[in-house]
Design goal:
By secondary structure, this protein is of the alpha+beta class. It is built from 10 helices and 17 strands. The chain has helices at residues 3-7, 18-29, 153-156, 164-170, 176-184, 247-250, 280-287, 308-315, 352-359, 390-399, and strands at residues 162-163, 188-190, 193-195, 201-202, 209-211, 214-215, 224-229, 261-263, 271-277, 295-302, 317-319, 322-324, 328-335, 338-345, 366-372, 375-376, 385-387. Strands 7, 8, 9, 10, 13, 14, 15, 16 and 17 form a 9-stranded mixed beta sheet that branches. Strand 15 (366-372) and strand 16 (375-376) form a beta hairpin. The longest helix is centred in the N-terminal third of the chain and has 12 residues, at 18-29. The chain starts with a helix and ends with a helix. 22% of the residues are buried.
Length: 402
């Protein structure tokens, strides 16, 4: 290379770009910004990194925000920036044994208790009951509540009786402490009168106690059961013709020695819910027309089903023994050749559902009763018998004013 070429090269700091390099070095020594050269501001690549472009100061590095409430990630490692924190020894829920098993099966994880107000479930009547269905509060109690005021103990107090909160706790309503809170809140009635004094004593054999409208059944000899009747079973305890009957399914039940009544009847071809009890007063009220206890059925007929037939069933159909109608009508499912319908009615006439559908030209192919009053079959298997929970018994009694 010639002498002139060497003088104009960037290495000598002269020629094209030389002044820019010198200016860049001067800014670097004064702390004015980023230098595109090598370490110390005298590198060979200074002009190649845009010495002719305007200088921009680098942005300061942003620190990552660390939530103090989160001590670590989902794998149990300590949070970033938390020095000296020990890793968690707890396993993730997905890695625990039984995590993939369905709830209720052997080896499955137990569900965590719900967070919230302590004792929220126990503050409801029979809220901690293990068996039976949770039917919630009583919607339409069969009687009027008394005035919410302090009732003198002299009117209801039985000096030889048992403390009211103890009777309630023994019946499974809640713990004795929660029962005391229920009494103080005016949620308990004795013989139709609201009681708010904790010193009340009652006779468990004669007192009628309600909590939140639910009747507490204190007679341990009374039995309440639900039978899911299969097709072909006769709704009697004994059949002279030797056909399958209810007593055949009671042999394995512990209450086989009790004399039970079947509330109402289902014909041989009809399946579903049948109540069994030895409470005569309840059985009479459930079957009496004046109490109008609703009954829910699932009806299968041939399809297609015309749109106006449902309105005809709700408005009423003339039968051989009088006028009859359904309280509600709902189309549940429809498949080629079959239609599934839900109807609710309170009439207790013999074979009323089948006769109604015969009258509109759609004979019943299959009929299942799924609910009587507040009591439903749920997932109870066919041919099985189960005892009602105390909350279910309270709702059933309240539905007929007991």
């Amino acid at each position: 290379m010639t002498q002139a070429g060497r003088q104009g090269s960037p290495r000598n700091g002269s020629g094209r770009g030389g002044n820019e390099r010198n200016n860049s070095q001067q800014r670097s020594t004064q702390g004015g910004g980023f230098s595109g050269g090598s370490r110390g501001g005298t590198g060979k690549r200074g002009p190649a990194f845009g010495g002719d472009r305007p200088h921009r100061s680098p942005k300061p590095r942003e620190e990552r925000f660390i939530d103090p409430d989160l001590a670590g990630d989902q794998q149990g490692r300590p949070a970033e920036g938390a020095r000296g924190a020990k890793p968690s020894s707890r396993k993730p829920a997905a890695r625990k044994p039984g995590a993939k098993k369905a709830p209720g099966t052997p080896g499955a994880l137990k569900p965590k208790p719900r967070t919230g107000t302590p004792g929220a479930a126990a503050s409801r009547a029979f809220g901690s009951e293990r068996f039976g269905q949770n039917l919630g509060p009583v919607r339409k109690p069969g009687r009027k509540k008394g005035p919410r005021g302090n009732v003198p103990q002299s009117e209801l107090h039985d000096a030889d009786g048992v403390r009211l909160q103890k009777v309630m706790a023994s019946a499974g309503v809640a713990s004795r402490r929660v029962c005391e809170e229920m009494i103080a809140e005016g949620r308990v009635e004795v013989d139709g009168q609201v009681v708010t004094e904790l010193g009340m004593r009652v006779d468990p054999k004669t007192a009628v106690i309600h909590v939140d409208g639910l009747r507490i059944q204190l007679d341990e000899n009374l039995v309440y059961m639900v039978f899911n009747k299969p097709k072909g079973v006769v709704s009697t305890m004994e059949d002279p013709e030797g056909r399958p009957c209810i007593s055949d399914f009671l042999k394995s039940n512990k209450n086989t020695g009790e004399r039970l009544f079947h509330v109402g009847r289902l014909d041989v071809a009809t399946e579903g819910l049948l109540l069994l009890t030895n409470d005569g007063e309840l059985a009479n009220r459930l079957t009496h027309p004046s109490y109008e206890v609703p009954k829910t059925y699932l009806v299968q007929v041939r399809g297609p089903f015309p749109q106006g037939v449902g309105a005809q069933l709700k408005s009423g159909v003339e039968l051989e023994d009088g006028f009859a109608n359904v309280d509600s009508f709902r189309l549940v499912d429809s498949t080629p050749g079959h239609v599934l319908i839900e109807v609710v009615l309170h009439s207790g006439k013999n074979r009323i559902v089948r006769r109604l559908f015969d009258a509109v030209g759609f004979p019943v192919q299959r009929l299942v009763r799924v609910k009587v009053g507040p009591i439903g079959l749920g997932d109870q298997r066919q041919g099985s018998i189960r005892n009602l929970g105390k909350q279910e018994v309270g709702h059933l009694l309240a539905s007929v004013g007991l």
